[in-house]
Amino acid sequence: MKNWLSNKWAFIRYSSTRSWWVHARYWWYTSKRERIVVISILTVVTFVVGISAHYSVKLSNKRQQIFCLAMNIYHEARGEPTAGKYAVAEVTLNRVKSKHYPNSICKVVHQKGWDKIRKRYVSAFSWTELDFAVKVKSKAWLEAMAISEQAYTNGTKPRVKGALFYHANYIKPSWARKKKVKAKIGKHIFY
Predict the structure, then answer these.
(1) What is the mean pLDDT of residues 66-85?
(2) pLDDT band per the 50, 70, 90 thresholds, residue 15
(3) What are the residues facing 126 on neighbouring strands?
(4) What pLDDT band is residue 144 in, cutting at 50, 70 and 90?
(5) Is pLDDT above 80 for 105?
């Protein structure tokens, strides 16, 4: 009786902690190993493809954000001095950081809001409502891309610290009356 009890407890102890291992070993020795090798290879390939796809999406998203910023710089400040182009990039990035605006550059650039006077949605940046072509080989586009990439990846020294708005100096929008001027660069006034 004592011997049966000790064997019973040994079996329970053995089966509860090592049962899965015993079954795995049995399966390994009795199955065809080709299946295991194929499954292992497929698992590794799936993992590697998943990781590379994740970084590829991140990389393409980064390129898309830089492109949207460059488009905004190109259309909003193409004829401005370099400091004005950096200031437009800074305002766009400030909006991305602000809790009152979308959290990506492309969403900020293409954001629309309801205009009570015109009774329609209008873009924050007017060029997004029009179909402007970009001269890709032009000096202005290449400079906009360079400024965009630098502002996106490294950041730049603040030129219009905290500014979220700007307009051309030849117009006087009603919203500007309540804002404090932070800088005047080229033909733009920044608030």
Answers:
(1) 95
(2) low
(3) none
(4) very high
(5) yes
Asked whether residue 44 is assigned to any structural domain, the reply reads no
Residues 8 and 86 in one domain: no
DSSP character string of the chain: -HHHHHHHHHHHHHHHHHHHHHHHHHHHHHS-HHHHHHHHHHHHHHHHHHHHHHHHHHHHHHHHHHHHHHHHHHHHHTTS-HHHHHHHHHHHHHHHHSTTS-SSHHHHHT-EEEETTTTEEEESSGGGGS-----TTSHHHHHHHHHHHHHHHT----SSTT---EEETT---GGGGGSPP-EEETTEEE-
What Å distances lie between residue 94 and 78, 88, 162, 165, CA to CA? 20, 10, 6, 10
What percentage of the chain reaches a pLDDT higher than 70?
A: 78
Residue 104 sits in the same domain as residue 142: yes
> Within this chain, do residues 135 and 96 fall inside the same structural domain, yes or no?
yes
Q: Which of 114, 136, 132, 118 is nearest to 76 (CA)?
A: 132
Question: For residue 12, is pLDDT > 50?
Answer: no
Q: Is the pTM of this model over 0.85?
A: no
Q: For residue 7, what are the domain limits?
A: 1-27
